[in-house]
Task: structure prediction
Amino acid sequence: MNDLPLEQKDQLAFQLAQEFLLGLNIPGVDGLLLEKYMRLPTLQSRPETLAGIYSNLLDSAQNASMKAGVIGRSLGGFSELGQVLGNFDPLFVLRTYGADWSLLLDTIERELQPNGQIRRSPRSIWPNYCQTVLEAAQFITQFSDADDFYRWADFFDQDNRARPALPMVLMSEIHGIGFALACDFLKELGYLNFGKPDVHIRDIFVGLDLCPPKPTDYQLLKVIVRIAEHVQRTPFAVDKLFWLIGSGRLYDDPQLGDQGKIGRHKKAFIAYAQERLLSA
Result:
């Protein structure tokens, strides 16, 4: 896009993202609010039980394309799944359903009565998600307790060379968990060295020539980490800032905007930033 050194380009893109959000002049959206979202995991306590980790994993697993609408919203909230999952107890899930996703789906239909049509073809959302639920339970029960899980994850996270292998293990072990969703799960647990390479990040980074034209999720994560290093922030912070532009969701502040929605501004931001990067 121009001849700016990569470090300066990353720094300017990050600065422009903050300026753009503040320039929307939405009441309550100020520098303090942006900082809150970029630091949020440091303000929260991570789950202290395997059930809590399992719940987080299943929540991240529905954060893809149409899944959240089909699953969480059709039930009146993701937490409603706890009624048929023993309050998200992975051992209960394995003992009750084993590897039978159809039994789990039958129970969900009978007990929770989701809104909308439930398709049962192998590639449909509900059957796939039920397989994720069961394989995630199998994976989580490998650990004796939450501390055991965190020691395992910390082993990867403390080494820059090994860190990308952590989401790769998760995506290999659990049906329906791709690289991006695995990163989402980890960052929401407080692993600030991860960002989610989702469609918003992809479109913005490609549009601003911050990454290759058709990057893999792994390449996008590396760009998130690179920008974080250049602006001396966490990858989580970089992820959240650009994600807020793309999603327009202030999920922790429903009193702002339209029940926490401030509009999706991805295309407008790309145009705004392209012009300023070109003239820099």
